[in-house]
Amino acid sequence: MRTAAVTAVVVTHNSARHLPELAETLESGSVSPGRMLVVDNASADDSVARARLAGFDVCETGSNDGFGAACNAALRITDSELVLICNPDVRPSPTALEGLTAALAENPTAAVAGPVFNRRLRARRFSRISGNLYTFLPGWMQRPLKRLDREVPVERGDHIVVDYVVGACMLCRVEPLRAVGGFDERFFLYSEEEDLCRRLGMRGWQTLFVPSVTVAHARRASSDGVDREVMAPFRFHSLYFYYRKYHSRLYAELARCALWMCVTCDHRFRALTHRQQIYGPSTAKALFWSTDRVRADYERVRAQDPADSRAEAA
Question: Disulfide-capable partner of 86 in 25, 109, 169, 210 (CB 3.0 to 4.6 Å)?
Answer without folding.
Answer: 169
